Structures are given as structure tokens and as C-alpha cells.
Amino acid sequence: MPSTEKPVESLAPTARTTLKRLPKRGMYDRSNVYEILDEGVVCHVGFSVDQQPYVIPTAYGRSGDCLYIHGSPASRMLRSLQDGIEVCVTVTLLDGLVLARSAFHHSMNYRSVVVFGTATLVEDSAHKLEALRSFTEHIMPGRWQEVRQPSPQELAGTLVLALPLEEASAKIRTGPPIDDADDYALPVWAGVVPLNLAPLAPIPDPQLPETIALPEYIQHYRKSSN
Amino acid sequence: MPSTEKPVESLAPTARTTLKRLPKRGMYDRSNVYEILDEGVVCHVGFSVDQQPYVIPTAYGRSGDCLYIHGSPASRMLRSLQDGIEVCVTVTLLDGLVLARSAFHHSMNYRSVVVFGTATLVEDSAHKLEALRSFTEHIMPGRWQEVRQPSPQELAGTLVLALPLEEASAKIRTGPPIDDADDYALPVWAGVVPLNLAPLAPIPDPQLPETIALPEYIQHYRKSSN
């Protein structure tokens, strides 16, 4: 557990976000939650239609105390969610494989956030534009100001949903394996293999003129804090 | 889209797995689905209790046509799922950031699998042991034969659920951004930043004697096929 984190503001734990197991792994302050949300790239959106759960991976953005997801008005997910049903959005960062001396104590180091709530349709154009800015900047900070901005048609053709970041919790595991006392004597390598979501060399679009150089914000892009 | 994949066996599309949008991104053959499941490390398990959806990140294993998840009998997720409710398990591999010339056409390259079904409790000990083997080997191939095997108490204290891989689909996006025809003339860098879940140098457990060398299967561990 990182003990240097300073809680900035608390997200009051509710019945849904209170961790039932391993409560020491749970955190409820906004700084933890937002750090994880900002480092993640993809979220998993969970919702139910007629008792059938769906978990859909999708891009997202955050601006202030709001998480945004978007898509085509034809998307089954977005059509379902705009009816005001309950949603659960989870973002998981995988930090390492935890290799213990026993099979039983193998684990993973990770940071995850679970957000509960009801999404609402963003209809105001200025609000919608801010959400679209948050998507582009979430994928690649520095990108929004360089690319062609959404046209009125694109703005109208994008369905944006906002989920207030009111009921959320973070869960974090760090550090070495925890083995049973007797197992420390076993002649088995134990430790952590850290994992890092690393960018490789950018691949220019085949139609990109050679005269257009790679911008600095892409050259220095780094997602994982691991 | 990789066009070199050979379908091995088909998973018949159902109403839940048939992609409503961008159907060309959908694939239903076992080889695609299993390749993605085997490369993933964490899955997101979705289920509903009293209309409330939950999406929980967790480890998993695959053996044959079964996906396994596990945990403590005290886990809310596992207690809920063993009641035989519908579940949706999603595994997502993030392969790259797709940077288009317009904000609107930004996207991601990814491979994901969605599995629907009803999980059942694994009670037979041999079957349970095979599931535990699949968890350990999923985290680190080669690990199972080296570590201390589960004791009868550990076996009894682990709740294992099996989800048959009968209703599943894969969704894949590859390649450069697709921009509007007029936008190709814009002086904006466009292309893909590939992302790769890369292992960093293993960190030995602080309690590991220096005489225990790093095994070769950990030295050569590589998860991402990107």
C-alpha cells in the first residue's frame, strides 16, 4: 500500500462501494480514484438489460467530477444506458504478477476503481464539446488543440453520457507475495514481475506525407506510472 | 483485421453475442476467442444483484472449453455467482492508440472477448485441482510444477466457478486511423501508437535467499503478442 498518498477529498463509502473482503485494500479518496481513472485507457461498463448483464470495454474521459463515455446513437450500450439504468464502470491497471512459493498465494499487483451510478445524456453543446475534449485528451494529452474539432454534424451524431463521480472506490495491491510461514524455507524463486503498458515506436499512417513530423507530445507519451 | 486467421471451430452467434454495430469487427471462432483469453491476464466479471450491476476485475484460467474464476467463499461476487445467475466475462487487450486527423475519428486498436453464460460451482477435487493449475499457469506458464501444490485445506478453502465457453465472441480493431476524405490534406500527424504490456526486471521477494536463481521461464516471460 502506498502510504504517501494524501487524501484530498473523501468519497463517502456506501453499501455498494464498501469492500467486504480485504478492506485494507480499499480507498475512497478522490485523489486515489482520479489518479487511477486518468492513467487508465479503457474502462469496462457494466449494465443489465432484462436480467442479462453486459460488460463492454470502451474509451472514456474525465473532466472534473464527471466520467464520460460516448458512442454512436445506434450503440446498444448507449441506448440502454440513456434510459437511466444503473451502471457500474470499472478501470483496472495491472501492475505486476505476484509469484509466491505456493500456488495458493499467487496474486497480482493492480490498481482498480469501481464507479456506481446512473448515467445521464449530455445534451448541452458546450458540455458535450467539453466531454469530447476529455476523450481526445484522455487518449493523448496535447492532442485536442492540434486536430480538427468536431463539426456540428459530428457533435450531433455522438451520444455522450455523463456519470457523476460520487460513488466510487479504489482498490490497490502492491508489494511482494505473502507466503505461509513454513513456505519461506522452500527453494522456490518468489517475487514480483512488474508489468508496464509501454508505448512502442509510433507507426505513421500510410497516407501521411513525410514532411509532417512526429509531435513532441507523442514522442514523450508515457501512460504507465509503474 | 488479420485475415490470416483460420477458423478452427465456430461458436454459434446468439442474440447476445451478435454484434449490432460494426459487425465486420466481430469474430466467433474458437481460435480467435482462445488466443485472446490466453493472452489476457485479468478479466472483468459482470453480474447483477437486485438490478445492481457489478463489474469486478479478477484473475482467471482456461482449460479446454471452460473458463475458471476463483476466490474466497466469503467473496460477494462468488457467493452471488454460485447461485446460478447470468454472468458476462470480458477480457480486453489494448494494442494501440489510433490518432486520427479529426477528434471524431480517434480510436483504439484492441482485441476483446465477451463470454455469456451461467457459472457453476466446481466441487469434484480433481476438476478443482485442474482449475487451480490453470490459474497458476495462466499467470506464469511453467510455474505450477515448481511451487507448493494446494493442500487439502487450501483446496477446500477456495471457491472455484466454471463458465462454459459456449457463447462467446471476439472483437478486434487493427490498422491505421480512418479519416474523412477531406481531412487527409490537414497538416496533422496521424497514425498509431502501439501499446505493449511489457514485463520489467523481476523484483525478488526481500526474504528470498540470494542462492535461489531466477528460473528461465520467468526470465523469458512475455505476455503481449503486440
Provide an overview of this structure.
The structure is a homodimer of 226-residue chains. Chain A has 226 residues and is an alpha+beta fold. Chain A has a single domain, classed as Electron Transport, Fmn-binding Protein, Chain A (Pnp Oxidase, Chain A, Roll), CATH 2.30.110.10. The first copy, chain A, is built from five helices and twelve strands. In chain A, the strands form two sheets. In chain A, strands 1, 2, 3, 6, 7, 10 and 11 form a seven-stranded antiparallel beta sheet that branches. In chain A, a hairpin with a 2-residue loop joins strand 2 (42-49) and strand 3 (52-59). At the A-B interface, strand 2, strand 3, strand 6, strand 7 and helix 3 of A face strand 2, strand 3, strand 6, strand 7 and helix 3 of B.
Short description:
The first copy, chain A, is of the alpha+beta class and about 230 residues long. Chain A has a single domain (about 25-220), classed as Electron Transport, Fmn-binding Protein, Chain A (Pnp Oxidase, Chain A, Roll), CATH 2.30.110.
